[in-house]
């Protein structure tokens, strides 16, 4: 295929710790043939008049420059202790549109494990997090009563255990009401039946979830279950389905409701020119339906326990490396199965998002394998990943799959070659730019077009927090020389502007940096298990409070040519934005939109 050809032609030479691409074909002027440099007017003699209109400016090429915000739904405002995919999600989309943004990037939507609540340690790779289901939305459907709803809580960080304890009984009640009255909820039952038929994976997820709640099995790893259900004997599974049919149906009802509410958010965003970029952790949790139902596709021992687990050696995010502990894939088994599990996973991603960021993309080229008995990630070995073969299988089954490659950390030439072979953009983080000299790949003058640029990601300090506490004096001096002496006066927005003016096609900014917040608003600290993921943007009035930031975003979005061609301010009828011939006119447009 074209991707394989590109991959095989990308030859590398490593000398004295320097990596240089070797250009395969001879592109010297003497070697350029008519076939490689075609004549646009082959019938005209030299000196002949060129066609009429030859000197007129060409039509504008299609626009590819865009920008957006990264904000996980749990961080949205809401009255019940956690952001939800209801009214506040629609209001955030409206704020994005008013700000001229085209992208809403999210963290994984899967249900998180319930010890540290990390969305990157999900309980199921294909399911949605039921805690995101809006309670008011369930009331509007008639599945809850007004008297069922909790007393609204004041704005603040998410207390996930408290939210789970208060909200899950209400979600289970809504599922029970739905299941108990097919006649009253006929339309919902029709939709739910279609969801169940179109997403056969949900049956295994529901059965696994039901088994984890059975007395005697609850709290045990699945590889410690009785042999019948552990090893998935057909008779044992059929008996479990009959015995736990109620739990299974309730689980599927909640997954259907999540899907229904999320699809409404996605449709609302897409109709307004906003694309959703999801996040796919490359690994899945060992205590999951993904591993239990697909045991042969993972590197497990005879009892089902992992033999080797995932992690990374020390990198820019952690001085001591990170031990993630997820079971590793048996890539040979995936290859022999034509990567059907991965096809299903990306197919689900295409249902939920417009594009997908693949976390730890580098593992598709080479991955860090750590013995399951190790207590840190320091002792491991690099092993070869599936490479281009996986992406050929995805393309054959699904067509074009829009992927953003998270290529931070230890990046070797084979990772870059693989990313470029499939045409996936990589990531640039401005917080990483200020050490290592002028060749640092994160410096603005080294940014490449097919990339996503971030002032900082959810794994970083906020820009302000980093500048105040993580930035070394020599880095601060370089920032002052590079951006300007005034950069430190508003470092968050200085970095935002540097990102927007870059050649990168896509810029994504953390909401905390738009709001100029310090590290008290940090979303995640890699290598630290507890105390992450809880930050929330504020109360329901926050979008009105951020009108000035919205206007500023709109101004720089247009100034640096990242605005949709047919953008219009919310509430206006005429598509398009007036052409601004000066910075002052851009600001006037932004002020009008904010007003």
UniProtKB/TrEMBL annotation:
<feature type="compositionally biased region" description="Low complexity">
    <location>
        <begin position="579"/>
        <end position="595"/>
    </location>
</feature>
<dbReference type="GO" id="GO:0004134">
    <property type="term" value="F:4-alpha-glucanotransferase activity"/>
</dbReference>
<dbReference type="InterPro" id="IPR003385">
    <property type="entry name" value="Glyco_hydro_77"/>
</dbReference>
<keyword id="KW-0119">Carbohydrate metabolism</keyword>
<comment type="similarity">
    <text>Belongs to the disproportionating enzyme family.</text>
</comment>
<protein>
    <recommendedName>
        <fullName>4-alpha-glucanotransferase</fullName>
        <ecNumber>2.4.1.25</ecNumber>
    </recommendedName>
</protein>
<keyword id="KW-0328">Glycosyltransferase</keyword>
<feature type="region of interest" description="Disordered">
    <location>
        <begin position="572"/>
        <end position="595"/>
    </location>
</feature>
<dbReference type="Pfam" id="PF02446">
    <property type="entry name" value="Glyco_hydro_77"/>
</dbReference>
<dbReference type="GO" id="GO:0005975">
    <property type="term" value="P:carbohydrate metabolic process"/>
</dbReference>
<keyword id="KW-0808">Transferase</keyword>
<feature type="region of interest" description="Disordered">
    <location>
        <begin position="30"/>
        <end position="68"/>
    </location>
</feature>
<dbReference type="InterPro" id="IPR017853">
    <property type="entry name" value="GH"/>
</dbReference>
């Amino acid at each position: 295929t074209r991707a394989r050809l590109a991959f095989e032609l990308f030859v590398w030479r490593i000398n004295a710790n320097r990596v240089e691409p070797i250009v395969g074909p001879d592109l010297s002027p003497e070697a350029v043939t008519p076939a490689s440099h075609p004549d646009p007017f082959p019938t005209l003699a030299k000196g002949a008049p060129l066609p009429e209109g030859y000197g007129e400016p060409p039509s504008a090429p299609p626009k590819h420059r865009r920008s957006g915000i990264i904000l996980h739904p749990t961080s949205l405002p809401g009255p019940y202790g956690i952001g939800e995919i209801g009214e506040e999600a629609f209001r955030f989309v409206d704020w994005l549109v008013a700000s001229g943004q085209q992208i809403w990037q999210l963290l994984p939507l899967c249900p998180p494990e319930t010890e540290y609540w990390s969305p990157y340690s999900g309980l199921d790779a294909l399911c949605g997090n039921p805690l995101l289901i809006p309670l008011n939305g369930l009331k509007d459907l008639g599945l809850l009563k007004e008297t069922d709803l909790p007393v609204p809580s004041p704005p603040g960080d998410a207390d996930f255990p408290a939210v789970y304890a208060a909200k899950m009984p209400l979600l289970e009640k809504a599922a029970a009401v739905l299941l108990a009255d097919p006649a009253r909820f006929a339309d919902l039952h029709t939709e739910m039946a279609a969801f169940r038929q179109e997403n056969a994976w949900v049956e295994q997820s529901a059965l696994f979830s039901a088994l984890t709640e059975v007395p005697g099995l609850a709290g045990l790893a699945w590889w410690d279950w009785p042999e019948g259900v552990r090893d998935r004997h057909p008779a044992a599974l059929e008996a479990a389905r009959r015995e736990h049919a109620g739990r299974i149906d309730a689980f599927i009802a909640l997954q259907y409701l999540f899907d229904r509410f999320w699809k409404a958010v996605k449709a609302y965003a897409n109709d307004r020119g906003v694309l959703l970029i999801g996040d796919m952790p490359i690994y899945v949790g060992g205590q999951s339906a993904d591993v239990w139902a697909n045991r042969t596709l993972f590197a497990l021992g005879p009892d089902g326990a992992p033999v080797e687990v995932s992690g990374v050696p020390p990198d820019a995010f952690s001085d001591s490396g990170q031990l993630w502990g997820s079971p590793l894939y048996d890539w040979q088994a995936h290859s022999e199965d034509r990567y059907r599990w991965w096809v299903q996973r990306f197919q689900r991603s295409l249902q939920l998002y417009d594009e997908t960021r693949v976390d730890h993309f580098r593992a598709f080229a080479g991955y860090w394998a750590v013995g399951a008995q190790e207590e840190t990630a320091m002792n491991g070995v690099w092993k070869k990943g599936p490479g281009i073969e996986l992406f050929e299988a995805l393309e054959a089954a699904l067509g074009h799959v829009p992927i953003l490659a998270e290529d931070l950390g230890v990046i070797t030439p084979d990772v870059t070659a693989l990313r470029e072979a499939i045409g996936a953009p990589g990531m640039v983080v401005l917080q990483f730019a200020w050490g290592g000299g002028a060749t640092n790949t994160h410096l603005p003058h080294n940014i490449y077009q097919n990339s996503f640029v971030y002032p900082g990601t959810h794994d970083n300090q906020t820009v302000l927090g980093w500048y105040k506490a993580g930035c070394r004096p020599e880095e601060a001096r370089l920032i002052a020389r590079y951006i300007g002496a005034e950069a430190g006066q508003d470092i968050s927005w200085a970095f935002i502007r540097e990102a927007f003016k870059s050649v990168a096609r896509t810029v994504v900014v953390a909401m905390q940096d738009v709001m100029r917040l310090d590290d008290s608003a940090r979303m995640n600290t890699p290598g630290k298990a507890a105390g992450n993921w809880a930050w929330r943007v504020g109360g329901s009035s926050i979008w009105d409070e951020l009108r000035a930031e919205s206007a500023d975003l709109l101004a720089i979005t247009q100034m640096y040519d990242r605005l949709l061609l047919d953008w219009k301010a919310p509430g206006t009828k005429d598509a398009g934005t007036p052409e601004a011939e000066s910075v002052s006119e851009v600001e006037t447009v932004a002020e009008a939109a904010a007003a």
